[in-house]
Amino acid sequence: MSKFNGIAGSEGIGIGKAVLIKEQELNYEQKSVLKPEDELNRFEDAVRVFVEKTTAMADSMRENVGEKESEILMGHVLMISDSAMTDEVRNNIHDGATSESAAEEVFDMFAAIFESADDELTKQRAADIRDIKTRLIKILQGVHEADISSLPPGSIIVAYDLTPSMTAGIKKENIAGIVTETGGYTSHSAILARALEIPAVLSIQDVTREFKNGQMIVVDGTSGAVVSDPDQEEVKEYTVLKKYHDEEKKELLKFIGKQTETADGDKVGLVCNIGKPEDCAEVIERDGEGVGLFRTEFLYMNSNEQPAEDEQFEAYKKAAMTMKGKPVIIRTLDVGGDKDIPYMNLKKEDNPFLGFRAVRYCLQNRELYSTQLRALLRASAFGEIKIMVPLVTCVDEIRNVKSMIRSIMDDLDKEGIGYNKDISVGVMIETPAAAVMADVLAKEAGFFSIGTNDLTGYTMAVDRGNANVSYLYSAYNPAVIRSIKRIIECGKSEGIMVGMCGEAAADPLMAPLLVSFGLDEYSVSPTSVLSARKVISLWTKEEADKVADVVLKCTTEEEVRELLIRYKK
Ligand code: PEP
Ligand code: MG
If we measure between CA atoms, which residue out of 307, 19, 3 comes closest to residue 147? Predict the structure, then answer.
């Protein structure tokens, strides 16, 4: 058995046998042609065949998958019919190039232009251009396309990429899962897999070399895991999971577009945790009501130097605009601890989790922090951005951040640059000190968001990576539960919104406690939106209070866990 982790592209569990789709290598000589007119005719014929074949594929896609997906292929017809793209190919042929090499050069150039774009969706169009190029060259070479229309039931497609043209004739009832070497959540492979409701995991390196035809494979498109050669026990476990998932999925569809509310109609917010602006597309697709935590460290980690103000501004603006006026809570840089950023030259520390990190680092690197705060303020003119400060332990930290923000606002006023003057600046409550001081912090903060991942670790003084003590890492510890209750009470008595963005927000066992304590906003991963909405809808305040009453009398983690399992709906 081997386990691989990739990008969860389309949820669900698929169990079946690997079918490797290997593209035939396209080798052709780079010779020059003697009669360019004949070569031009060969090219025009190939374009004609391409248009005919692709239109037929789009028709079949419209029937078998849907209108939106068929438009992807009709987009290919439009692109190849666009003289802005193909005239350059014709010019090269005129100068003596073969149709194959002319198409390769020009289409690769266009693909590179799309690939260098900032936004993910434009980047993905590079894959369309490459798909068009490969298929056109295949037509020119008389090479047949990989045909996946006649695969046997229970097939797991293993391919470098899943192109729209490959999927046109797909019989979805025969395909148990898809694994690819490339592609992200917004790639065509993922869009098509989701439209076809086939579990898919993308971007696992070298799968087309690692896996063999006929090998047993489990695709867990919900968690992004792929297991090859699972043992009997695992097959049994995944079969149960699959049954559960299939039934649950049907049930959850009822919650799309619904208000998030408790069984007695108390409305709460249900927003999402994201790592980059492009994730907002998934938030909307999964019916999230906004963003409750945008972890900005990925912007810094995916770069060789500190991202410039404009680059950050564009990223935050994009998130705000994609969410169209829905709230977007952006957390300022949470560097240090387990989040190293090489070019920041953080010194090695004996206790990095207790060291120079997050707001502590930012307040001592004011230039770096000002750049981020300025970018955030500028972006606040384009949507409902809120600023959140991580790892606060003392009230002066939030006061200092707010005073920096005020001084940047003065600068922006002088420069005539717009921003939201009433921007809300909130505190992430994730340390015991912040929990104890929550009554005081609530007077300074625009809102609270409880970071249960760190709050659990720091409250229990436990390193979850250390196997000897990881049993202590549980939010069901009475110490953590009491802390959460206190934070919510302190926030509420000052009239500020209290959210939760740690993993506990999506934990169905925690729901009665959070409903009872009166949590205002749950921030969960986009894939958990509907299940969280369902769980919240199951509890009335009165029922939740009864569970909370007994849980608060518990003295150990085991007692709490057992009770929550017993009362789970
Ligand atoms: C948390 O600590 O609960 C949290 C949401 O932040 P992170 O996991 O990024 O530390
Ligand atoms: Mg944290």
Answer: 19
| pTM listed for this prediction | 0.71
For atom 5 of ligand 1, the residue with the nearest CA is: 502
Q: Give 453 Cα–ligand 2 centroid separation in angstroms.
A: 6
Q: Between residues 401 and 34, which one has the greater pLDDT? A: 401
**For residue 154, how far is the Cα from the chain centroid?**
28
User: Which tens digit of pLDDT belongs to each residue from 177-201?
Assistant: 999 998 877 677 787 888 788 999 9
Pocket around ligand 1: residues whose beta carbon is below 6 Å from it? Answer: 293, 295, 334, 430, 451-454, 501-502
Q: How close is the Cα of 462 to the center of ligand 2, in Å?
A: 14
> DSSP letters of 156-224?
EEEES---HHHHTT--GGGEEEEEESS--TTSHHHHHHHHHT--EEE--TTHHHH--TT-EEEEETTTT
pLDDT in tens, 438-471: 999 999 999 999 999 999 999 999 987 777 888 8
DSSP character string of 347-406: PP-SSGGGSS-HHHHHHHSHHHHHHHHHHHHHHGGGSEEEEEE-S--SHHHHHHHHHHHH
Beta bridge partners of 329: 386
| CB proximity list for 497: less than 8 A, separation 6 or greater | 269, 447, 448, 491, 520, 521
Which domains are assigned to the chain?
Answer: 2-23+147-230 (3.50.30.10), 36-141 (1.10.274.10), 264-567 (3.20.20.60)
Query: What percentage of the chain's residues is helix, strand, coil (to nearest 5)?
Result: 55, 15, 30
